[in-house]
């Protein structure tokens, strides 16, 4: 493969006219494809259908602590759900609170609580002139939407293959008291699939924040979402690490079963130090008399224990792996050596992150749309929807069928090639 930049103008023009013809043919097919949604496919949702049979009208609906799950009570979550989720999140079961159906909701509430009431006696963030959050980029748009919603200034922190640039993180956190938080997706990150290295986690735990109410928002949404049995990433457990370093209160850890059972109908949890949890419980007891215990019971009985959940995740992986492989092999065979884009082959999670030539992402997404392929909006992976280089595109291979994906990946690479040629030709 010759890199596009090494081709002559004539060669590029000739290639362009060939690719344009190909593109017109594809357009003529009236395709309707979508690689924008990080959702499990129907086949994946079907894996959890047994959960619907776990609770019947004749079932005993009393949980381990002897409470009838049909009724009010047990604000923290039932014992068996706490055991399951604490094993999933690798924390002691006394350091977890089970919430409702969405971890994003818990993250929103956590920021909202800090805004209105402050953290452990510190000034409520809303009363301060300026509040800042560090945002490793590319990252998860819904994290950024929460901080934008509350008027919190967001600062881009570039991701490296080991996680966020820790020199920058330390510089901001340790010197600027307005920096109150950082969004982290530490394992199989959204969208790059990067897992933070041991050194990165150590450096997080060793942070000496300028603000006493600084918190790490550790969203381990893809903690057990491996694609391969023989190639799995390992992440150091942050709660224990912060405790060891003498900063037990510095982290809020979030998780949910959204991409394990049913997104929107799973269970979510927060894990944190005793002191943090005591404060959260206080607010919770005003907010609710308790979350959906029947759903907690259904999850606990369906999975049995963490081993059941791990086995279940292997079935997800069997469905997801060929889809990732399809997209990655099309990227490799069609774009390898052309030097018009780069990507990382992840070992887990839900996404492949593609970096186009600078200034090309928006045009590529628009081009793909012309041919009937919907991609995640360019810029979505950055705070305020603004990718300074206009280069990053998130690819979500989970939802389409394998056949659709093959076609979608071809449309994508064709769009990348055409837009890149225009860029090089100037
Ligand atoms: N966190 C990350 C990093 C995600 O990618 C997603 C969904 O895509 C969520 C959280 C949403 O989680 P939940 O369904 O528990 O609100």
TrEMBL record:
GO MF annotations in UniProt? L-aspartate:2-oxoglutarate aminotransferase activity
Record InterPro entries: AspAT_Ic, PyrdxlP-dep_Trfase, PyrdxlP-dep_Trfase_major, PyrdxlP-dep_Trfase_small
Pfam families assigned to the protein according to its UniProt record, in alphabetical order: Asp_aminotransf
Tell me the keywords, alphabetical order: Aminotransferase, Transferase
SUPFAM superfamilies named among the record's database cross-references: PLP-dependent transferases (SSF53383)
Give the matching PANTHER family. AMINOTRANSFERASE, PUTATIVE-RELATED, ASPARTATE AMINOTRANSFERASE
What name does UniProt use for this protein? Aminotransferase
